[in-house]
Amino acid sequence: MSPLQSRRLTRVAVLSVHTSPLAQPGTGDAGGMNVYVLQSALQMAKRGVEVEIFTRATSSADEPVVEAAPGVLVRNVVAGPFEGLDKHDLPTQLCAFAAGVLREEARNQPGHYDLIHSHYWLSGQVGWLARDRWGVPLVHTAHTLAAVKNASLAEGDTPEPAAREIGERQVVEEADRLIANTAEEAKQLIETYGAPLDKIDVVSPGADLARYRPGDRAAARAAFGIDPLESVVTFVGRIQPLKAPDVLLRAAAEILTRRPDAPLRVLVVGGPSGTGLARPDSLIELAADLGIADRVTFLPPQPPDRLVEVYRASDVVAVPSYSESFGLVAIEAQACGTPVIAADVGGLGTAVRNGETGILVQGHRADDWASALGSMLADRSELARMGERAHHHADNFSWEHTAEGLLASYRKALVDYDIRDSRAEAPAQRRPRGMWKIRRGVRA
Ligand code: UDP
């Protein structure tokens, strides 16, 4: 495209290979990324930018294309077996997935998509190829990074394979722009993955603030049969070692050892995911081993209209993760006026204002968590003030705001691409710089 002319932005191809935006989050591989992909697409469509989300079909019952909302299509691409394909085997299906994406585009007029936004490194690999074929910019969001995750693994967790880190580095190098959830993630992209600063945009994820807002606590408790007099501390999310719901159980046991009559209830909402704690019964067994089985209530993954009641019913929401690129649960809980106790890792330092809207705990020792949680629950008036401040803090994180940030990044990507295209420097015309050796996460 030379001489220079400005590109329009009417339709974006969003790639989400390994998890569908239509899946129920909170179990298996469905979590914050699904919510992010769907919510940002809905906001794009409201701003007049159509979105087509490509994801891998995981059931023979999946329709090839589903309209999630006006202007948002979900395309279920057949790539490999519908069910039972382990996440670690997904790289074997990237070629099939890419073929599906390219064939779909070929059915349309040239220039059907103006830009590609890939989520997670697997999608980044497909986006890299499609970008070169279509001559449009590639914007990539990593969501999590293998090198960062491997640096803070939970006990019993399996390290991410070197192949993932190689794939991530390729995408970081090839993408036209990179979206980081927080400044800390931007720093990790630069320092660990060698990304150039001027290629990164920091765009915070959000929460559906129209849904997640304070409400009637007594009614919410009644909906789940929770005693109105108990102190309720809640974990919401995929049950896996990295998310560390066991830390909350151990902290609760510690509090109850110190004060056996404490009216404490732990609510665990979510389903199994990944390894280690993946067995549905393992947390139930842990609660029994700790002698607190009667103080723990387990709920399966909840849809958003029930989840809002979970947050309202809770005195504190706990996010004890070992690694967290952002932590949507922390924002959703605060939006409902519920303070958060979180591990001081990754994006949680941005999501929670330490001492104001919740408490950030260093490390994962049960006694540290018990002390921090115990002191939060002991001062009810300060807890109520924290809840007020939490609600206001969450106002900074809306999907509307996220969409504006993404659009700004897309426009930058289009302009830069145009300039490079007019100078015959577009990525598709460039020679790859070649492969690097991976040595303990350092590019050699
Ligand atoms: N979630 C849900 N129902 C559940 C548990 C979780 O809808 O029972 C959603 C939750 O609302 C949040 C997402 O799953 O938007 C989890 O995102 P987060 O960033 O906290 O964790 P991730 O799954 O990305 O590690």
TrEMBL record:
UDP-N-acetyl-alpha-D-glucosamine binds at Q24, P25, G32, R238, K243, Q302, E324, E332. Residues 31-206 form the Glycosyltransferase subfamily 4-like N-terminal domain. It catalyses: 1D-myo-inositol 3-phosphate + UDP-N-acetyl-alpha-D-glucosamine = 1D-myo-inositol 2-acetamido-2-deoxy-alpha-D-glucopyranoside 3-phosphate + UDP + H(+). Its EC number is 2.4.1.250. SUPFAM superfamilies: UDP-Glycosyltransferase/glycogen phosphorylase. GO terms for molecular function: acetylglucosaminyltransferase activity; D-inositol-3-phosphate glycosyltransferase activity; magnesium ion binding. It comes from the Bacteria. It is an enzyme of class 2 (transferase). Mg(2+) binds at Y311, R312, S314, T338. Keywords: Glycosyltransferase, Magnesium, Metal-binding, Transferase. GO terms for biological process: mycothiol biosynthetic process. InterPro entries: Glyco_trans_1, Glyco_trans_4-like_N, Mycothiol_biosynthesis_MshA. 1D-myo-inositol 3-phosphate binds at H18, D29, A30, G31, G32, M33, N34, K87, Y120, T144, R164. Residues 217-391 form the Glycosyl transferase family domain. Catalyzes the transfer of a N-acetyl-glucosamine moiety to 1D-myo-inositol 3-phosphate to produce 1D-myo-inositol 2-acetamido-2-deoxy-glucopyranoside 3-phosphate in the mycothiol biosynthesis pathway. Homodimer. Belongs to the glycosyltransferase group 1 family. MshA subfamily. This is D-inositol-3-phosphate glycosyltransferase. The gene is mshA.
